[in-house]
Design goal:
The complex is a heterodimer of chains A (111) and B (888). Chain A has 111 residues and is mainly alpha-helical. Helix content of chain A is 51%, strand content 9%. In chain A, strands 1-3-2 form a 3-stranded antiparallel β-sheet. The two termini of chain A are 23 Å apart. In chain B, the strands form 3 sheets. In chain B, strands 14, 15, 16, 17, 18, 19 and 20 form a 7-stranded mixed β-sheet that branches. In chain B, strands 3-4-9-6-8-7 form a 6-stranded mixed barrel. A 4-stranded antiparallel β-sheet of chain B has the order 13-21-12-22. In chain B, a hairpin with a 6-residue loop joins β18 and β19. Chains A and B meet through α2 and α3 of A and α1, α3 and α4 of B.
Chain lengths: 111, 888
């Protein structure tokens, strides 16, 4: 997924925010789970990615804290914007196309 | 609750790593680097990682983060204004000296950035030293320093039987059963044993080294599978399906690391076995040359069925005293038959076998010491480079001081600069460390592949940055000295055209001298090891080693149930080998090539007093068939070789005969008068005890009938062409006879030599490469220092030339100024080397640790290097045009 579409870290962050808003460490954990413990996003990468996504309008900082138990005021929560959802979907569709091609070409086993 | 040390380290590293990011990132990240580190830590611990492993993973992620993202943040955020954070707590008084640190780092970064070529040079220099050190530390750590990766490894021990002469044997099953039942000071007594499995049904049969273990062993040692499940007591029950584990290594090489390998089946001797999971390579229980491929548990009765058991592991009860535990085991031993043949065996508890033996351990330490030497050369080199640059920046420093920059602030700037180089050095060093490790792995896979995992170990990842930062701090000493000598008034008034002060000249001398001294220590050490290795390789083995090959075949009872069938099979094997093209002679042998397997104390001639039982004079013995000596190429010194029908005769090696007037025809008495035979011949000395065995030991040969009733035969082939080629042809022929019986011990004579000298070669090669790198660095350092000196003296040289000095005089002055510190440093280095090399003694073979030739080689090399390094600047100095320099 190098040339076109989203960089991998951006894709993973968007994917992590797809179901609900999360704070920084929450994103890190979710990305780790989504990637089958493969991607451990460091603080610098996370910050850089969030900045880029926010600048591009794909995510937004949000004031509503989904988890009322969490009252740490230093935590910032992010949520995905409609625009972010759109690019996430487009990217996922693009990836499915590639996976389908790989299945057809017998590179991967498939359903 | 006290915080684990590893977490503190991770937090500190997180802070350090954060410095590689642009200040704005550092300030604005949410979570902060330290919060992130805490979180990462808890998560890894939550996944069940040990503290060091959790730390290793966290640091790895941090370093990856810095490598991939940090440089970009500097570009992205360099232009952004500093953003003040209203939420930030007011600064504590003790933090005030650090105020403005961000700006200083930016200034330092800018200074580094301005001279990318220079920065690359310094970073590469530090990286080279750090990389070599990190790689050798990793090898040291994984083999020597780190405790075994088992639960309670500090109480883990091995029990073996020891007799009065200190020879070891393995405990008997009955004793182990008794211990299991009643011992209180130790527990466990789990068993591991070498087995051989034959994989069939997938191309030609393959012999696989297999570890048989007690069903309770994995739980006892807390070994976790990499994939699938661990074997356990359920697999040992009668009627349980056949299940085994494959080792990580075998999994990667034969199954491509397939995660879904569990549940697949392997055919072993025609019987299907299900793969339960993958056994981690880290959990190596026993030392052996060939890596293990399979692990299986003993079935219920099989575990303690054999007469004696290869490896028996126990754990001491907490606080138990070792002699008391040994006494308890001894008291629990069943009555006599289990006390061994001499009846005086006692149980002895020892630490689990160290991976690869003492010589290996010293070798790894030595290579580590060598890499630290290389690092010091690099530090001296980089420090000098930085000092030279600080000298060149005296004007800038002078202006800063004149504008009111305080000395500590400027010192901090210099330290920050060095730190940036240090961090660059970490990155370069880690990349180089991976390269070095790859080199070690590919060079001697047998030694290193099982030890070195993929990539650097966690502790090496901590070690490398610490080392690099230390180096950076050391590097900043020299420029700090330069800074202290900077007088603002003088600098400003001369507009930076500073004169070469005595102080700077001393610095140059010290830098060159130190590099020469370190380089000469490295070279001398390496030269001694290389000489030791070449001496070893020049040894006469006494046999036709380059025309020999060995191959062993056993007739398995499952395929050849009767003695007749077995004999017939081995006869066919022999015929096939004899008629293989290239084979000109064939014999069987009880001993592998250059590896004594039967030891017999010290024999003597009839009429001589019985010699004392001396462990260093132990003799090898063994039965050999008629024709053995001719095929092996042993030289007949006196008497004759064996003939058909020989009985109660022996042939001895020359070293036995040398001290005696006549040997042939006399009677040889075996130790303790066990038997007497007649010596019929003397053959040339051979290295029965191994290539690198020290001492001059005797071998006694006795005749045996060639057609022994054995199910196993070791053949020696004499060839008239490359034995490796003959060996593969022989293998193909044997596969035609029975593809289900793979031969073992397939080696050429030179394979044996290489295997037995691998350790020496490895240490020699690694140390020689370190020395070569050290010399290269030192040369670069000398060249830089002298060239700098010449360029600074351009004007002075011009004046001298104008006053009538010849070009020859100028060149020789430059050479002299370069060579004097080299010679002085070299002399100091030689003395230090003489003090250090005796530590190599145990690693050396027939070479004195204070080998004068090696010292001379070191001295000559360093002087040649110095002359070469100084020649170019000297020529440049001699070509200076006086008119132009004076006019400038």
């Amino acid at each position: 997924m190098a040339e076109s579409g989203l960089p991998r870290s951006s894709f993973l962050v968007l994917l992590a925010l797809a179901d609900r808003p999360r704070h920084g460490l929450g994103i890190v954990d979710r990305v780790e789970d989504l990637s089958n413990r493969d991607v451990k996003m460091g603080p610098g990468t996370l910050y850089g990615t969030l900045q880029k996504l926010a600048a591009g309008g794909l995510i937004r900082e949000t004031a509503d804290v989904p988890d009322p138990d969490d009252d740490d005021p230093r935590r910032r929560y992010y949520r995905i914007t409609p625009r972010g959802e759109k690019s996430l979907r487009a990217e996922a569709a693009r990836m499915r196309l590639l996976v389908d091609a790989a299945v057809t070409g017998k590179i991967l086993g498939g359903a | 609750m006290s915080r684990p040390v590893a977490l503190t380290v991770v937090r500190a590293i997180a802070r350090l790593v954060s410095l590689t990011f642009a200040p704005r990132v550092r300030r604005m990240t949410n979570p902060t680097f330290v919060e992130w580190a805490d979180h990462r830590w808890q998560r890894e611990r939550g996944f069940g990682a040990s503290a060091p492993r959790a730390a290793g993973r966290a640091v790895r992620a941090l370093v990856a983060d810095a490598l991939t993202t940090a440089p970009a943040t500097w570009m992205l955020f360099a232009a952004a204004n500093e953003v003040s954070d209203p939420l930030a707590a007011p600064r504590r008084w003790w933090r005030r000296p650090f105020d403005g640190g961000g700006r200083d780092i930016r200034l330092a970064w800018r200074a580094v950035h301005r001279a990318p070529g220079f920065a690359a040079l310094v970073i590469l220099t530090i990286g080279l030293g750090v990389g070599a050190s990190a790689a050798s530390f990793d090898a040291l750590d994984r083999t020597v320093l780190r405790p075994l990766p088992f639960k309670d490894s500090d109480r883990l021990a091995q029990v073996s039987m020891r007799d009065k002469r200190n020879s070891f044997s393995t405990p008997r099953a009955a004793a182990v059963a008794a211990w299991r039942q009643s011992a209180t000071l130790s527990s466990g007594f789990v068993v591991a044993r070498d087995l051989i499995a034959v994989r069939t049904g997938d191309g030609p049969a393959e012999r696989l080294d297999t570890l048989g273990i007690s069903p309770s062993l994995p739980a006892f040692l807390d070994i976790k599978p990499i994939v699938g499940r661990m074997l356990g007591p359920a697999d040992a029950a009668d009627g349980a399906p056949n299940a085994l584990m494959i080792t990580e290594r075998y999994w990667r090489s034969h199954f491509g690391g397939d995660q879904g390998v569990s549940g697949r089946t392997l055919q072993l001797a025609g019987v299907p076995w299900t793969i339960a999971g993958v056994w981690p390579d880290g959990a190596r229980l026993i030392m052996r040359a060939e890596p293990i491929a399979l692990v299986r548990v003993f079935k219920a009765k099989e575990e303690l069925s054999a007469g004696s058991l290869s490896y028996v592991f126990l754990k001491l009860a907490p606080g138990a005293d070792l002699p008391a535990a040994e006494a308890e085991l001894s008291a629990l031993m069943p009555a006599t038959p289990d006390r061994g043949p001499s009846g005086d065996e006692r149980p002895a508890i020892t630490p689990p076998t160290v991976f690869l033996g003492d010589a290996y351990v010293s070798g790894v330490w030595l290579v580590f010491a060598g890499s630290i030497g290389l690092l010091l050369v690099a530090v001296a080199n980089a420090g000098h480079l930085l000092a030279v640059r600080a000298g060149a920046r005296r004007f800038e420093l002078g202006v800063r001081i004149a504008l009111g920059g305080s000395m500590p602030r400027i010192a901090r700037l210099i330290v920050f600069e060095s730190l940036i180089f240090g961090l660059g050095g970490v990155a370069a060093g880690l990349v180089m460390a991976l390269g070095f490790e790859e080199l070690m792995r590919s060079y001697e896979p047998r030694l290193f592949a099982p030890v070195l995992g993929a990539g650097l170990g966690g502790r090496a990842l901590i070690f490398a940055p610490v080392l690099a930062l230390l180096s950076a701090v050391m590097c900043s000493i020299a420029p700090l000295v330069v800074m202290r000598s900077t007088d603002a008034r003088e600098v400003i008034s001369t507009a930076g055209a500073g004169r070469a002060t005595a102080r700077r000249s001393r610095l140059r001398t010290a830098a060159i001298g130190a590099q020469a001294a370190l380089a000469i220590i490295l070279i001398t050490g390496a030269a001694v090891m290389v000489r030791s290795y070449t001496t070893l390789m020049r040894l006469d083995t006494g046999i036709a080693i380059d025309r020999l090959a060995t191959i062993s075949v056993s007739a398995p009872a499952r395929r050849y149930p009767t003695p007749e069938l077995r004999r017939a099979f081995l006869r066919r094997v022999r015929e096939a080998l004899e008629t293989t093209p290239g084979v000109v002679g064939l014999t069987t042998s009880g001993m592998p090539i250059m590896m004594a397997s039967i030891f017999m104390g010290v024999p003597h001639l009839e009429g001589e007093p019985e010699p004392p039982d001396d462990a260093t004079a132990i003799t090898a013995g063994g039965g050999v068939p008629v024709g053995f000596f001719e095929v092996m190429g042993l030289r007949l010194v006196a008497g004759r070789f064996f003939q058909p029908g020989d009985k109660d005769v022996a042939i001895v090696t020359e070293n036995f005969a040398r001290a005696r007037a006549a040997v042939v025809g006399r009677k040889l008495v075996y130790p303790r008068g066990r038997k007497t035979v007649e010596v019929v011949g003397v053959v040339g000395d051979t290295r029965t005890f191994g290539m690198a065995a020290k001492g001059d030991r005797v071998t006694v040969y006795e005749p045996i009938a060639d057609d022994a009733e054995s199910t196993f035969q070791r053949f020696m082939l004499r060839t008239d062409r490359d034995p490796a080629v003959v060996l593969s042809a022989a293998r193909a022929r044997l596969a035609e006879i029975d593809p289900e019986v793979p031969p073992s011990e397939r080696e050429t004579g030179m394979d044996v030599v290489r295997r037995q000298t691998a350790q020496f070669r490895l240490v020699a090669v690694l140390l020689a490469s370190l020395a070569a790198l050290g010399l290269l660095l030192a040369m670069a350092g000398m060249y830089g220092a002298v060239a700098m000196d010449v360029s600074r003296r351009t004007r002075e040289v011009g004046i001298r030339l104008a006053l009538g000095a010849t070009r020859h005089q100028i060149a020789s002055t430059v050479l002299r100024r370069g060579l004097v510190p080299v010679v002085a440093g070299g002399a100091v280095g030689l003395i230090l080397a003489q003090l250090a090399t005796p530590r190599l003694e145990t690693l050396l073979f027939n070479v004195s640790a204070r080998d004068p030739l090696s010292a001379i080689a070191g001295a000559v090399l360093i002087v040649i290097a110095a002359v070469v390094a100084c020649l170019i600047p000297a020529r440049r100095a001699a070509r200076i045009d006086p008119v132009r320099t004076l006019r400038a």
